[in-house]
Amino acid sequence: MSTIRILGIDPGLRKTGWGVIDCEGARLTYVACGSVEPDPGLDLGARLALLHAGLSEVFAALGPDEAAVEETFVNADARSALKLGAARGVAMLVPAQGGLSVAEYAPNHVKKTVVGSGHAEKQQIRMMIKVLLPKAVVKTDDAADALAIAICHAQNRNVKRLVAR
Prior knowledge:
Blueprint: E1 4-10, E2 16-24, E3 27-36, H1 44-62, E4 66-70, H2 78-97, E5 102-105, H3 107-114, H4 122-132, H5 141-164
Parallel strand pairs: 1-4, 4-5
Antiparallel strand pairs: 1-2, 2-3
Helix pairs in contact: 1-2, 3-5, 4-5
């Protein structure tokens, strides 16, 4: 059975979390996680460029085979939603430039897959990350969310592949 390396990305303009796991059958192994945090004082274009550079560095260093990104939830503030959409576009662009298709998962689906409840709190996600990936060193909620996205993809990747056929 071959090992598949999965990159999960939790897009955001202030912090974009990333997490990488190896998946061999049902066995999941922690590889790395972190976040890209551009200076919030910079203009939008500069922040997006820094997100792209940071995620590109992670992609090049860790060589994922598959990638998954969290879908944007609907925001009441259209301006914030557009800015988050730009960050999400960068999060999808980096793996696409590396030749990968990018799976997308709704936040509630990620939480339900990892915690068992679609309305789980951040603390519950972090606790389940420790259970599922005991060697993980998670410093931010964004990195925990990114690992949760990678785990969600690991659990759903075969279904996605069958549906695509």
